[in-house]
Amino acid sequence: MKLHDLRPAEGSTKKRKRVGRGTGSGKGKTSTRGTKGQNSRTGGGVRLTFEGGQLPLVKRLPKLRGFNNRFKVEYVAINLDTLERIFDTDGAVSPETLAGFGLGDVNDPIVILGRGEISKPLTIKAHRVSESARAKIEAAGGSIEILSWTVNKRMPRS
User: Fold this and answer.
1) What is the CA radius of gyration of the chain?
2) Which of 32, 71, 115, 124 could be joined to 93 by an S-S link, Cβ 3.0–4.6 Å?
């Protein structure tokens, strides 16, 4: 095969439509635009968002309200019934071990919530613990360590 043998695949290319090249071409005179009207003129046609004179969607919608709080902390919520199911007796619960089970990322802040019961004395390291969860963990003989969390951490430049 040589360079001059290369051809596009059959049906992948079309001939360009040459309009306005005389009546014999079949696309002369009005050049496929029809007769008269806004769309037959140079620069004619309506904008992309035009809805035929109806009040456009962008005007019908309410104005943008509120703002996005860049200091909002979105916690990964872990319930006690989940901890009961996945951890053995005397297990250590930390963001690293939870990430190992596919529950959030190592860098995500963790909150322990009180749904379900716990019977194992777990050592829990989390960024937040609800009051009901704290009571159940301590009743089961476990301990809680609250980790610090910096909001809107900046990554060091490399």
Assistant:
1) 33
2) 124
Neighbours of 58 (CB within 10 A): 8
How many domains, in total, are found in the chain? 1
Domain that holds residue 83: 76-146
- The torsion angle over the Cα atoms of residues 134, 140, 143 and 144, rounded to 10 degrees, is -20
What is the model's pTM? 0.56
Distance (Å, whole) CA 68 – CA 74: 13
Query: Does residue 82 form part of some domain?
Result: yes
* Structure token digits, residue 71: 């200091």
Give CA–CA dist 113/78, Å, rounded.
6
Q: Which residue has the tokens 């006690």?
A: 80
User: Residue 108 in 3-state DSSP?
Assistant: coil
- Residue 68: pLDDT band (50, 70, 90) is confident
Q: What pLDDT is attached to residue 33? A: 93
In a domain, 38, yes or no: no
| Burial (0-12, 13-18, 19+ Cβ within 10 Å), 79 | middle
14 in a domain, yes or no?
Answer: no
